[in-house]
Amino acid sequence: MNQIQLLGTHNSYHREVSFAEKKIQGESDPDNLWYSHASLPVQLDQQPVRQLELDVMPDSDRGGLYTNPLIRQKAGLPPLDDPDLAGPGLKVMHWADHDYNTTCSTLVKCLRQVKTWSDANPNHVPIPILLELKATDPKMEQLGGPKSPPWDAKQFDRLDTEIRSVFDADELITPDTIRHRGLTLEESVLRHGWPSLAQARGKFVFLMDNKDAKLQAPYLSGRPNLEGRVLFTDSAPGRADAAFLEENDPTGANTAKIQDWVRKGYLVRTRSDVPFGAARTGDTRQLEAALASGAQIVSTDFPVAGLAARYGSDYVAQLPDGGPARCNPVDAPRSCHTVED
To answer: How far apart are CA 43 and CA 41, in angstroms?
Structure first.
């Protein structure tokens, strides 16, 4: 499963807010937030996408912290009437109070949509789901917005529990799946590798999209090799938990660095574009570097033609054959031919 390359989307859930709210956003973030994705099942079914990214926010035990975003109040709009948003559970959004719109408002709802698609397409390649753990913006809190609960042991346990409430154990590739007795997680990956593609089909791997050691600490506490956990942490070579690494800029010397990581056996994520430079110019150099790096996960905001048109270009990030997955250009064996029909 580490000898393939997948195309994925950045902030896969993201939808733009209303025109009235965009006018307010434009005062401080001119068009940097103005991109929208199809729903998660449509990306998987009708677009060449095999990796997803969700931004996850803790809510209060009762829920409902994020039902009345400040930007809606400023635009003269009523509170949101989404019952999922009003209830308990982890929420999915980009920026509380400012850029909140989403195709699925709770983590469980998002994952159930993905699970339904997977059940109908059981031979799919393993799908990485990146989770970026978010918190409310202190500036918004000062203006009267809610303060999110901290990412402590309680919230991390809730995160694992919610994922496991949707997927059965045999549908997940976890650190315990990879680790060998007497070895750290990193040693296990470097010496014994990942499950074969055949073994991993129809499964999911969850990856923490945060490098912050302080944030990761409660998740790793008493579990240096992520024992019993669902997510792989965004780590660094030499750490016991190092199986998944990120380098979001694949250009320059980073191309060779990523290639080295891939050859050693790490799972790597990079990005083909960052909003909205490539979309405005049509420049594909970062995309070309990302593909050449061999990073197994290449993330984009523009997986199909037409999404960049509003910015004046025909930029699109796709694998060379236009499919959702291919044999990895760096470490795939010569016997690799078709990854996914």
So the answer is: 5
Task: Give the whole-angstrom CA distance, residue 179 versus residue 192.
Answer: 9
Distance from C-alpha of 240 to C-alpha of 235, rounded to nearest angstrom: 9
Q: What single DSSP character describes residue 55? A: E
pLDDT at 31 over 70: no
CA nearest neighbour of 192 among 173, 174, 177: 177
Taking domain 4-20+48-58+117-134+148-327, whether its CATH number is 3.40.50.300 is answered by no
Distance CA 131, CA 209 (A): 5
Which strand (E) or helix (H) includes residue 56?
A: strand 52-57
Residues 33, 25 contacting (CB under 8 angstroms): yes
For residue 51, which of 244, 218, 281 has the smallest C-alpha distance?
Answer: 244
pLDDT at 32: 82
- Note whether 247 and 280 are within 8 A (CB): no
Count the Cβ atoms, other than its own, within 10 Å of residue 26: 13
Helices (H), the chain: 19-25, 40-46, 70-74, 83-86, 107-120, 138-142, 153-166, 175-178, 185-192, 197-200, 213-220, 253-264, 277-281, 285-293
Q: What is the mean pLDDT of the chain?
A: 97
**Which residue is associated with the tokens 């590739």?**
173
Give which of 285, 111, 65, 288 is closest to 206, Cα–Cα: 111
Report how far residue 96's alpha carbon sits from residue 140's, in angstroms, rounded to the nearest whole number: 8
Give the pTM: 0.97
